[in-house]
Each structure stands twice: as C-alpha cells, then as structure tokens.
C-alpha cells in the first residue's frame, strides 16, 4: 500500500482555542485507520534497533501516538501529565505555551534504571510543552534520544529552541501555504559523512520551490526526486 499524504487527514480549525490560533486537529487523522497506522509504522521503523528503553507520551494527544508506538517497540510507556493526575510522588515543571501557561508532572520513579527515551507528542509549536517534558525526563534520570511529533509548525521556531536535542516530525507547516511532508526520513550519520539508512524523497507543497528547501539542506542535497504539489495536489515535477 502506498504511503498516504497525511496532510489530507489533518483538519485546520481557526480561532481555537483562542482567536488567532490555527489549530491542527489530528482527530481526523486517527479516524482513518490506514493514516493512523502509517504514523505508527514510520515512528516504529525509525526507532527500531536504537536501544530505546521507554517512550514518553505527553498529555493528552501525545498518548494517542505514544501508546501504540511503545507497544510496537516492546518498551515501557511513561506518561507526562498535568498536575494532580499522577498518584505517586512527582517532579513538576511550569512552562509557557503559545496561548498561555501550564504545568506538567512525571513520576519520580519513572526511570528506575535510567536509559534512553523518545518523547512523543502530536504537535510541535513554540517548544514550551515538549521542553518542559524533556526537563522532567532528565530530572527523573533518563536521557532523551529524540523528540518526535506528527506535526511541526516550523515557522514558530520550536526546533531551534529545543537544540541540541534531535527533533523528528512527519508533517511540517511553514509560513502560510508551505508544508513539507517527509515520508520516510531516517537519521543522518554526521560523523561518517554518509547516510546510514536510505533517504526517501520528500514531498514539497506550495510556497516551496525547487532549489530552496532551506529548512532541510541535507535532505535536499541527497534527495533526487522531489514532487511539487501546487494547490495541494500531488504530482511529479518534470
């Protein structure tokens, strides 16, 4: 079965939860089993064999994707929750987000033996939520291998704020009209100067022109086939 264009399953809700916010709704994606399965397939393929001891899910939509991923990988699932939701002793962090502020907690004994973890959430915006989750994970004694998202709002700069922790996302929205969907991107082995796994073509959308994928220069350099989709309709570029 060919990979689906996941952007077709993500609904945009204007002015939610506050005026001026363009909310990316993943409930329409998880309502389609094949699209939902594709998300988990990509993540499971990415983290298989990388000595991950746990998947951390961030409340609440992060639970949707972290639970099946942990099950697929055969590793522990650790929840990061809002205050008062976890019954045992916790660490707590307060953070800012794009439409207010909040707090998150994690059990103090979540990682009794340390280990490497991947933190999963549905969306990366400014990086406040996932940054707080990373702080909690490290305070609880684990190291963060990568931060994984279904959606990234790249124009908000969350990836840069989270450096040097690696960030992976399946669907990326830039300035209005720009979206990059990376169908099968696996990690780049910097020290050897070559790709450890095959890099599959990216699918580029309006406002991005051939020769100017500035957000991903490494990917652009080795990607030999780019499909441009004017008006959101995928086609092969001659």
Low confidence ranges: 177-238
| Succession of helices and strands | EEHHEHEEEEHEHEEEEEHE
Number of helices: 6
| Helical fraction | 10-25%
Determine the CATH topology of the domain at 51-173. Rossmann fold
The counted number of beta strands is 14
Report the radius of gyration as a whole number of Å.
18 Å
Q: Strand order of the main beta sheet, please? A: 4-3-7-8-9-10-13-14
Report on the biggest sheet. Answer: 8 strands, mixed
**Structural shape:** globular
Q: Mean pLDDT, nearest integer?
A: 78
Q: What class do helices, strands and sheet pairing give?
A: alpha/beta
CATH class of the domain at 51-173: Alpha Beta
Q: Which CATH architecture of the domain at 51-173 is right?
A: 3-Layer(aba) Sandwich
Question: Which band does the percent of strand residues land in?
Answer: 25-35%
State the end-to-end CA separation: 24 Å
Protein model, in words:
This protein is an alpha/beta fold and 238 residues long. The chain has a domain at 51-173: Rossmann fold. It contains six helices and 14 strands. It has helices at 27-30, 33-47, 61-73, 128-139, 158-161, 217-222; strands at residues 11-14, 22-25, 54-58, 76-80, 90-97, 100-107, 116-124, 143-153, 167-173, 179-182, 188-189, 194-195, 202-204, 227-228. Helix 3 (61-73) links the parallel strand 3 (54-58) and strand 4. The longest helix has 15 residues, at 33-47.
């Amino acid at each position: 079965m060919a990979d689906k264009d996941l952007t077709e399953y993500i609904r945009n809700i204007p002015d939610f939860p506050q005026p001026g916010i363009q909310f990316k709704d993943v409930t329409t994606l998880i309502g389609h089993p094949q699209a939902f399965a594709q998300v988990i397939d990509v993540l499971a393929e990415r983290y298989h064999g990388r000595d991950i001891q746990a998947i951390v899910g961030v409340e609440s939509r992060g639970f949707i994707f972290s639970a099946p991923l942990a099950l697929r990988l055969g590793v522990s699932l650790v929840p990061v929750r809002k205050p008062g939701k976890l019954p045992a002793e916790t660490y707590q962090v307060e953070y800012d987000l794009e439409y207010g502020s909040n707090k998150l907690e994690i059990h103090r004994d979540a990682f009794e033996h340390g280990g490497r973890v991947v933190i999963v959430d549905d969306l990366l915006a400014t990086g406040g939520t996932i940054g707080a989750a990373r702080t909690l994970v490290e305070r609880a004694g684990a190291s963060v291998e990568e931060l994984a998202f279904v959606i990234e709002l790249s124009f908000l700069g969350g990836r840069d704020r989270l450096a040097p922790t690696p960030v992976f996302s399946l669907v990326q929205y830039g300035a209005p009209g720009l979206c990059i969907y990376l169908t099968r991107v696996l990690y780049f082995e910097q020290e050897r100067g070559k790709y450890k796994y095959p890099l599959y073509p990216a699918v580029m959308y309006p406002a991005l022109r051939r020769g100017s994928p500035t957000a991903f220069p490494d990917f652009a350099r080795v990607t030999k086939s780019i499909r441009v989709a004017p008006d959101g309709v995928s086609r092969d570029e001659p």
